[in-house]
User: Which sequence fits this backbone?
């Protein structure tokens, strides 16, 4: 298996993100070829720790990933990425929904697709998603308060974003998810968060991927 190089990323560690995975695998298969992906995955550990200390709820609230794709056998030289763009985008969407579900996001719905450009000038197809985390509350919060009297699970609305584009003749995928409401709704002591700031940062990270 020919390993695709890793995608180029912005300085995520300076923003409180921690790399939680790096892998090379067969991301999906097309009728005449396998699509390989070199993927980097990051979680917002700073936010996770803040919420855990305040509420006792330990959860990965935000993640970001970026992949650079390769093909076995290689793409035909004349048509290149244009010959498989629609198939790659369709399969990437399916794989992203599967990733969200693996992370515990329920009731995932695909929203609209729009266009933007990366920092290098490449045109990106951005598809939006919505779902929810359903969390069991309870236990001793980090502030010493007992939250076990809440019988109903907590539903936290989640927004996701997937970008698909080509750069220097290779495909890139990038995206992630974030809470679409302030986490202050979890409990009185939970930190307030800004969904708009989360959305803007995720778009910036996608646009900054090379």
Assistant:
């Amino acid at each position: 298996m020919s390993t695709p190089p890793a995608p180029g990323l912005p300085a995520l560690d300076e923003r409180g993100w921690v790399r939680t995975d790096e892998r090379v695998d067969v991301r999906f298969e097309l009728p005449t070829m396998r699509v390989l992906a070199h993927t980097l995955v990051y979680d917002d550990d700073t936010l996770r720790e803040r919420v855990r200390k305040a509420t006792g709820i330990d959860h990965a609230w935000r993640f970001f990933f970026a992949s650079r794709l390769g093909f076995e056998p290689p793409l035909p030289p004349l048509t290149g990425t244009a010959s498989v763009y629609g198939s790659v985008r369709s399969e990437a969407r399916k794989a992203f929904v599967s990733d969200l579900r693996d992370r515990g996001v329920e009731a995932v719905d695909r929203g609209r697709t729009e266009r933007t450009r990366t920092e290098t000038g490449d045109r990106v197809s951005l598809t939006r998603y919505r779902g929810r985390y359903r969390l069991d509350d309870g236990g001793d919060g980090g502030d010493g308060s007992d939250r076990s009297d809440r019988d109903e699970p907590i539903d936290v609305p989640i927004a996701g974003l997937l970008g698909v584009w080509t750069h220097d003749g290779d495909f890139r995928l990038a995206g992630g998810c974030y809470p679409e409401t302030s986490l202050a709704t979890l409990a009185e002591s939970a930190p307030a968060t800004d969904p708009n700031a989360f959305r803007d940062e995720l778009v910036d990270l996608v646009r900054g991927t090379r």
The first strand starts at residue 17 and ends at 30. The chain has a mean pLDDT of 91. Residues 85-102 form the longest helix (18 residues).
